[in-house]
Amino acid sequence: MLITAQILSTILGLFFLVTGWLKTSGHPHMIEEFDKFQYPHWLRVVAGVLELISAPMMLAVWWSPALASLGALIISAVMVGAAYTNFVKRPAVFGWGTLAILALCLAPVAIHWTETEQTLHHILSVVFPPSP
């Protein structure tokens, strides 16, 4: 099961590197999609940047499963927005496809949950130190 999660994270990481690059570079298809849905272009750039931040984290699954899980959680937030768009502004089949990708992103998180939870707890304790 562990190797499956690693392979899945690698494939998704590569996928989101490409989609993140297409969004941030202003690829005509991405501009057309955001125009069609009447979303501001800053949202396209933010989504692309989040994908470009998350993708390398997901690719790090071979060395740090917790880091990959954190990347998957970040990209999952983007995917929730994408699922909303695809259910509301397109035929439902697009929404179901997006939910499938979201589920694939969350699968490695579930598999590596114990390590992920410890890492998130550590990050939160650094960002928000306990009061004396």
Automatic annotation (TrEMBL):
Pfam families: DoxX_2 (PF13564). It is found in: Membrane. Keywords: Membrane, Transmembrane, Transmembrane helix. InterPro entries: DoxX (IPR032808). The chain crosses the membrane at residues 6-22, 42-63, 69-87, 94-113. It is a multi-pass membrane protein. GO terms for cellular component: membrane. Its main location: membrane. The keyword Transmembrane applies. This is DoxX family protein. The lineage of its organism: Bacteria, Pseudomonadati, Pseudomonadota, Gammaproteobacteria, Pseudomonadales.
